[in-house]
Amino acid sequence: MTDTVAGHAGHMDAIYRTQRHFYDLTRKYYLLGRDALIADLAPPPGGTVLEIGCGTARNAITAARRWPDARFFGYDISEAMLETARTNLKRAGLEGRVHLARGDAMFDEGASLFGCDAFDRVFMSYTLSMIPDWQAAIRLAAKSVAAGGALHIVDFGQQEHLPGWFRAGLFAWLAKFDVTPRRALPVVLEQVAADEDMLLDFRAPYRGYAWAATLKRRTA
């Protein structure tokens, strides 16, 4: 682990060492669009699903219950969050179906962490707004998608159809937690889609509160 990666990992652990104990209880009120993303995954029977930035494993558990025929994998840079994730998986009885590892979305690929060449579905839920080099993270995630598979993303939008005071207040509050909504996300997604020969579907639900996107790889 490089000094840069170790520094970011330590920073994330410092943020979540306490928050992880009540993270899921509070985030359900403002991390909008997560369950819609999970519903859209629809992995093939026996397919593989990778979550980048799996946190407490809340999303992986929800997805594994919804899609019982798929195999699930997840990694996160924060060992503190992974500790909670392992506890949650054990409590849910899903230790054998959801496999976890520690990794950095800017540098690590699911293939190297889990020994899979590629994944049928890859998803990132409210992670890009906390990753320093989020563009690199998207590019790595896209490369992990198998032929005919898809990368699903949801994160904070620019609140473009909501009152200005709401946007200002939300962004100021998010900044306290080192969260930065990515204004350039649509442009970067278009570039990645072109470079990877993928089909992009971009949406702005909840009046732009969230931005959601799917990058689909063509069938070989």
Task: Describe it.
It is a single chain. With 220 residues, the chain is of the alpha/beta class. It has a single domain, classed as Rossmann fold (3-Layer(aba) Sandwich). It is 42% helix and 22% strand. The protein is built from 9 helices and 7 strands, in the order αααβαβαβαβαβααββ. Strands 3-2-1-4-5-7-6 form a 7-stranded mixed sheet, with helices on both faces. Helix 5 (79-92) links the parallel strand 2 and strand 3. Helix 7 packs parallel to helix 9. The longest helix is centred in the N-terminal third of the chain and has 17 residues, at 3-19. The chain is globular and about 45 Å long. The termini are far apart. It comes from Stakelama marina. Pfam families: Methyltransf_25.
Mean pLDDT across all residues, rounded?
A: 89
Distance between the termini: 35 Å
Sequence of strands across the biggest β-sheet: 3-2-1-4-5-7-6
- Our count of domains comes out at 1
GO biological process, one term: methylation
InterPro entries: Methyltransf_25, SAM-dependent_MTases_sf
Pfam families: Methyltransf_25
Keywords: Methyltransferase, Transferase
